[in-house]
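Good morning N.,

You mentioned wanting to compare the apo and holo forms, so I went ahead and generated the holo version with 2-acetamido-2-deoxy-beta-D-glucopyranose. This is what I fed in:
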Amino acid sequence: MLKLYLLISLICLVRSDTDEICPSFTKLSFHSAVVGTGLSVKLMLYTERNQTCAQIVNFTALGNLNVTKKTTFVIHGFRPTGSPPVWMGDLVESLLLVEDMNVVVVDWNRGATTVIYTQASSKTRKVAVILKEFIDQILANGGSLDNIYMIGVSLGAHISGFVGEMYDGQLGRITGLDPAGPLFNGRPPQDRLDPSDAQFVDVIHSDIDALGYKEPLGNIDFYPNGGLDQPGCPKTIFGGMEYFKCDHQRSVYLYLASLRENCAIAAYPCDSYRDYRNGKCVSCGIPQKVSCPLLGYYADSWKDYLKEKDPPMTKAFFDTDDKKPFCIYHYFVDIVSWNKNIRRGSIIIKLKDKDGNITESKINHEPATFQKYHQVSLLARFNQDLDKVAAISLEFSTGSVVGPKYKLRILRMKLRSLAHPERPQLCRYDLVLMENVETFFQPIVCPKLQM
Ligand SMILES: *[C@@H]1O[C@H](CO)[C@@H](O)[C@H](O)[C@H]1NC(C)=O
Ligand SMILES: *[C@@H]1O[C@H](CO)[C@@H](O)[C@H](O)[C@H]1NC(C)=O
Ligand SMILES: *[C@@H]1O[C@H](CO)[C@@H](O)[C@H](O)[C@H]1NC(C)=O
Ligand SMILES: *[C@@H]1O[C@H](CO)[C@@H](O)[C@H](O)[C@H]1NC(C)=O
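and this is what came out, ligand included:
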């Protein structure tokens, strides 16, 4: 009997201890999702000195929040199963790694958890009002709107927009990670995130054909892989739960990569994904900047330039790899051919370095047109950045399986890196490609003065 009593008190002790010391994100069951949940917002503060253990704060108790520092709010979206977002811990930790700031996790799992999307969506304005009360308190204690940053995922992106609107766009920055599309698509600006909601609004669209918002919503809108289907995500329902959320969640993982990985993801301002793939948008024309806009945390370095435009909105496209760190490296393959007749087809190019690393790019999104003595510049995308290329292979295909095999007669091919224009350009002269046959060769450094 005594033993049992001791055991129970021990369990109670342990439980109340952990509850008090480190509050955690609300965990709900699928049952809660089925019956639906009423709104309750929990604000969890993480700081440099308390990176893994949250402190619960509210508008009457700011806790250890230092109002002179930047405060970043992380706001999740719809939770159809009640589980906590899997990326939340990583995002908090990574933000604190790059800057000494206050990170406030906005846990509105009670409210967002329901199988009925419209119920979750209908609570977004109320969440925004609660956040405004809290921010007002930061301001009353000497904080500044310039230092407020909101990262909103899906419905959370529109919540951020509603908060920003209540401050007439004076909020420092909003990042929308695949802002929710259903019920928001086509709505007027006051009913969704828009560029006037903060001093700078950047958006990543990764699932525009399903859960995400299609049209631009920010000062810069990044469309990875065109914004539709993300590489590495299941393409059919047989992929299970991943099929529904993988594309949508990719926006969060891309943002995380900007904090964590040592390769920067550059995006190319362009009117369409097709123009980007056709290599029409490779010069950003941004004065005083060595690179095109980078996706993620550091996107605000381009703020002044992007806000100068009229209207202050830019769409930017780029492709990614199918896994972390997601970076790909852009090259141009310039080909001058001398076939008598026009040839149309696709090219596969492989690069190999001295250590035997091989990386491949298929340029097959639409047929390239090779015309006698005309230069065609093809945009090649590789998932490795091989510094010293020792061998190159090219393969030409017209796509027809039956019928005659064609040859592509190349007068000159030139390979140049977009990210590293200072690297020597590699050339090869006089080469005949047999259709569907891989042809290896050693390139030479192109002579300085090229026709
Ligand atoms: C860390 O978090 C705990 C639990 O919320 C809190 O009691 C403590 O004051 C925090 N410490 C610092 C230095 O922020
Ligand atoms: C705010 O937090 C303090 C300290 O945790 C708590 O005592 C108080 O009841 C909270 N106020 C509200 C309105 O939730
Ligand atoms: C708050 O942050 C400022 C600026 O980083 C720093 O100078 C100050 O010491 C901090 N205050 C506290 C109480 O930690
Ligand atoms: C190339 O291969 C070597 C040895 O296998 C490896 O250590 C290196 O990281 C590779 N380089 C790249 C750019 O992938």
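The two ends are 95 Å apart (CA to CA).

Happy to go through it together on a call whenever suits you.

Best,
F.
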